[in-house]
Amino acid sequence: MTVDLLLGLQWGDEGKGKIVDVLTSKYDIIARFQGGPNAGHTLEFDGIKHVLRTIPSGIFHENNINIIGNGVVIDPVVFKTELEGLKKFNLDIKSKLIISRKAHLILPTHRLLDAASEASKGKAKIGSTLKGIGPTYMDKTGRNGIRVGDIELADFKDRYRALAEKHEAMIAFYNVDIQYNLPELEAEFFEAIEELKQLTFIDSEEYLAKAQKEGKSILCEGAQGSLLDVDFGTYPFVTSSTTTAAGACTGLGIAPNKIKEVFGIFKAYTTRVGSGPFPTEDFGTAGDIMAKIGNEFGSVTGRKRRCGWLDLVALKYAIQVNGVTQLMMMKGDVLSGFETLKVGTSYLYKGIEINHLPYNIEEENVTPIYTEFKGWNADLTGLTSYDSLPIELKNYIEFIEKEVEVPITIVSVGPDRKQTIVR
Q1: From CA 288, how far away is CA 296, in angstroms rounded?
Q2: At what angle do helices 312-322 and 391-404 cross, to 10 degrees?
Q3: Which residues, 6 or more positions from 373, have their beta carbon under 8 angstroms from its beta carbon?
Q4: Among the listed residues 237, 262, 238, the one whose alpha carbon sits nearest the alpha carbon of residue 249
Q5: Per-residue pLDDT for 127 more than 90?
Q6: Contact assessment for residue 5 and residue 245, using Cβ atoms and an 8 Å cutoff
């Protein structure tokens, strides 16, 4: 029996989906523990690119179960579309995919509330993906939410109506011009609910406890990244859930002392989508090259990602908060061709050099201090062993390991599952 945990250590988009897919054959159960359809976990194999938003990234493997945990928020309409996209692969979805009754539902009015709230903020907007995720988590903590298990109750539609009417009053309060046709949105929603009802609902904490007693191996899959955590991220420019290791416990009902390995995923550089501080952002040619070569556009939103150098201060912080035991470095291939690479190794914070992430990392408070490295000019995408990597890249990897005191056990050199070097 083993319970391992995989999560992102930056501002999301680190490549978690690929690594879950690579590791899935070692596990009986893949369990997604938080987030919603703002996730876009990209998997690539056999020349086909797949983007999963709610469904765990182990779904393409034959011999495992995929669980959507109680910490996840589900938009039935988006979920229905995601299921339809999988039909051509002849997967046995009904036996492979199960859902926690305690997972909360995103209503059409949650999406409308999200849009109204963001529009009302003007220039102070936080860069929401407008998927209704924030309002859904607000209803969850405000004890107003509707959960998957409520679908099985006789008064489900009454519960829905009461919450939707409350939301409409809140939308009117924002006094912004949001055009919508709620009956049309609701028809789509209830059609998707019928599709959702075809799947198996479980009491996931009990299911996972039983699986552990039976000696099953479980991989907990996180979404977004640690720097977007609602408590430990760059608040208020964060997501609405617990993206750190603690979220696996609250989002699945797994006890902390059951978790063994904590796999932390990070890019060889840094990206961020939307608003918020980003100390090592590069506004020049280097950032543009990273964006172009790395295809840095959101897999769900299509938004261009901001790009910059690796920030070791932030990476150490994320490793510390999560108790990371193994690191996986993604997109090393994107940095090929740079004469010189930079790594942010400390901050000048209000005139004093520091090595930790302070309360506020806005531009007026923080200036990164860089260490420079000689770059490499080699095509990494066909390499299959660590020994075959350029010496400059190995120096880069080994410097990071020394600084953060955690081994890098996987180096990704391309988007395909085969382009993965295990050390």
Answers
A1: 10
A2: 50
A3: 340, 341, 342, 343, 392, 395, 396, 399
A4: 262
A5: no
A6: yes
Helices (H) then strands (E): counts for the chain: 12, 20
DSSP state, residue 73? E
Sort 329 into a burial class: Cβ within 10 Å, 0-12 / 13-18 / 19+: buried
Residue 42: what pLDDT? Answer: 65
Cα 15-18-19 angle, rounded to 5 deg: 90
Residue for token pair 């059951």: 258
User: Catalytic one among 4, 13, 139, 333?
Assistant: 13
Beta carbons within 8 Å of 354's beta carbon, 6+ residues apart: 313, 346, 347, 348
Strands 104-105 and 340-349: what pairing? unpaired
Instruction: Determine whether 167 is an active site residue.
Output: no
Instruction: Judge whether 92 counts as a catalytic residue.
Output: no
Report phi then psi at 17, rounded to 5. Answer: -60, -45
| Residue 285 burial (CB count, 10 A) | 8
Radius of gyration of the chain (CA): 21
Task: Give the DSSP per-residue string, 345-374.
Answer: EEEEETTEEESS--S---TTTEEEEEEEEE
Write down the pTM of the prediction.
0.92
**Residue 374: φ, ψ to 5°:** -70, 135
Q: Which residue has the higher pLDDT, 184 or 122?
A: 184
Find the helix packing angle between 108-121 and 182-196, rounded to 10°: 130
Higher pLDDT, 178 or 414: 414
Helices of type H across 97-245: 108-121, 133-141, 156-174, 182-196, 204-213
The single residue of 41, 50, 104, 167 carrying the catalytic annotation is 41
Q: Give the side-chain half-sphere CA count within 13 A for 298.
A: 20
CA distance linking residue 288 with residue 68, whole number of Å:
36
CA angle 372, 405, 233 (to 5 degrees): 80
Total count of residues recorded for the chain: 423
Closest by Cα among 286, 291, 357, 348 to 320? 357
Per DSSP, the residues of 203-228 read -HHHHHHHHHHTT-EEEEE--S-GGG
Statement: residue 321 has pLDDT above 60: yes
CB-CB contact of 171 with 163 (8 Å): no
The mean per-residue pLDDT over the stretch 346-366 comes to 95
Taking CA atoms, 364 is separated from 138, 283, 348, 361, in Å, by: 31, 16, 11, 8
